[in-house]
Amino acid sequence: MATRYQAVKQGGPFEIVSASKPELERNEVLVNIKAVALNPLDYKQLDYGMFISSWPATLGSDGAGIVEAVGEDVKSFKPGDEVFARFTPGNNKSAAFQSIAAVHESKVGRKPGSWSFEDAASLTIAFVTAVASLAALEISLPFIPGSQTGAYQPGTILILGGSSSVGASTIQVLRLALPNCTILTTSSSKHHEALKALGASAVLDYRSANILNDIKNMSADGQGVEAIIDAVGSVTTDPSLLHVLTGSKKFAQVITGKDSKDIPADVKHYSIASGNVFGAPGGANIVAALGLLLEEGKYKVPLPVTVVGQGFDAIGDGLQTLKKGVSGTKLVVCL
Hints:
By secondary structure, this protein is an alpha/beta fold. It has helices at 40-48, 117-121, 124-136, 165-177, 192-198, 211-218, 234-237, 286-295, 313-324, and strands at residues 2-7, 14-19, 28-37, 57-58, 62-70, 82-86, 100-104, 108-110, 156-160, 182-187, 202-205, 225-230, 245-254, 268-272, 305-310, 330-334. Helices cover 24% and strands 28% of the residues.
């Protein structure tokens, strides 16, 4: 049997229910989940029903565990392998907030033995979103086999929200893709050194009264940035941030539920949803590529992990903590 932590209806409450173990398709991996990470998407799905077609619903996108069984066509994994995965919230078979889930092989990555389940659980949705952002901007991703070859090589890119999990992941992915790019990002001052260690060229205090001039002054040519990746909806709060764009003026905005309006006509705007990238060229190789980067020591834990509890009931409490606001850490629950 399996145990699910499911939302009874939009807005909750949660309940713990027993269910049969999922039946495996030929290309699926059955994962016994040991740790799950909490994301803003989780409480937004609970509160607003984002991307949820029916209730009760099992949520959760990020997790790590041990392979229990594999479908007959699966060649990359075997029972006993330690893995992380991009789970599918709203799908009771494949969501993360349960004891065991069936996941398509392409959304499973191998966890290095030196990594904890807690750290590994924090990785996938942020990495996939970072990849989706760069792919939308047509930046080449040579570490992902089969991905598109883009010619876009901006001199300076601004990542808004560097201390979020998506922001910190995007810094690393961008540094891998464009080693010589000037990467600017924003955060509170206490996170500056950590973000530089991940690959940021300079980190700016988002509360600065002169943030626009600060950004321009730190750009490669002193004129501004060619592209912005907004990981946290900063432009919705302060549309003037788009005034630092120059040249190609590309703006990739991660969907947060508070998208910007009235974007200038000369700005190329891209809305980013992580799930869409799996259908793009190389999409089936993204999570496996992350596993290889971890093994090679080329990718770090984007944010320090904070374990907020043990067991399913800790998920609901953790989501309330996350909703109130956390900075520079990823909340994880051990199962």
